[in-house]
Amino acid sequence: MLLIFAASRVVTTGILLAFAAIQPANPWTAASPGYLEFANLWDGRWYQLVAHYGYPAELPLTDDGHVAENAWAFMPVYPFTVRAVMFVTGAGWELAAVAVSVVFAAAGCLVIHRLMVRALDDHSVAFVAVAVFCFGPLSPILQVAYAESMHVFLLGLALLLVLERRYLVLLPVIVIMAFTRPSGLAFAMFLVLHVAWRWWRARRGEESFELRERWSAIAAVLTSGAAGLAWPGIVWAATGSFNGYVETELAWRAAYIGYQHLVPFTAWVQSALWWVGWPLGVAVLVLVVAVFALVMLAPQVRRLGVDLRLWIASYGVYLLAVFFPQSSTFRLLLPMFPLVGAIVVPRSRLWRAAVIIAGVVGQVAWVHLCWWIDGLDWTPP
């Protein structure tokens, strides 16, 4: 697995260096920056601010009184881990941030392999699934100053522990994961469905679900829900603003639709109308939801098993409830990585090779669209 990961890093690093070489001067770097500078664009700067200065005691406001973009949108585990590495090694932020991301990406690939073996009971398919993940369109995000690689590792570990029914071991993983990327509420939804599924199967005599195990699983549900709500509570306690975290997150979509209240399940409609317009935008949204439902019912996806499908569905519903689709959408789909197992179920070598090649092409497209800064770029990753 690590050889596959290393090979993929060679390809992805080459793509990033090629774009860095033609990168014009921008607010973050001079023209043609080195790799480490280029890997610390966008949210990497926010994580750097958190690592060095922590979080503001007062929420910054725009001229018209709305909460502005600020560091509270970024969870603390990744930047504080990098800060610890900086303290121990004496490395600067840029090197330490990339190193932490790469190490967790490598560990994540090992966990994904074990997860795929557990779900598909096929080592060869699991091996190819990891290769598809490593060479996939979002692969560059695994080696820049973002928390995604750490979250992939923690999420993969959490899903593996659920499949192994090790609920008590799962508890600290859930908490750390929820303070790495916003995931606690989505994972709580998944665990509720998981517990309901196991209880239903136990009622039918198809599976044992003893009382002690039930209470452990319920503890995991409650822990995940509490962890998902904890960060907004911390922001409230630190800033005195009850809705400070939500308003902070809404600041990022204000550039598109202005400042509005969070109404669950409306952001996708707002986005469809902003990007495409009425009525075609709504038609496109309905089509996207329908395609997602059909994908979840596909035989290849069903091979993943009930639990992984429940996670993918739960996370999809979570995004539908709270996220405003824009250029960051691609990155936010990364937690659906178990789908790589379904993609490689067909054993055709031509198909698998085509998927990997398409992933590399997708990397180029993603870096060009979302990472590389071309003038006044409005497509953040």
TrEMBL record:
GO molecular function (one): GPI mannosyltransferase activity
Gene Ontology BP annotations: GPI anchor biosynthetic process
Subcellular locations according to the entry: Endoplasmic reticulum membrane
Pathway: Glycolipid biosynthesis; glycosylphosphatidylinositol-anchor biosynthesis
Transmembrane segments annotated in the record for this chain: 84-112, 124-147, 167-196, 217-238, 272-296, 308-324, 353-374
Protein keywords: Endoplasmic reticulum, Glycosyltransferase, GPI-anchor biosynthesis, Membrane, Signal, Transferase, Transmembrane, Transmembrane helix
Source domain of life: Bacteria
Bilayer disposition of the protein: Multi-pass membrane protein
Leader peptide range in chain numbering: 1-20
Main location: endoplasmic reticulum
Name of protein: DUF2029 domain-containing protein
Organism: Ruicaihuangia caeni
Lineage: Bacteria, Bacillati, Actinomycetota, Actinomycetes, Micrococcales
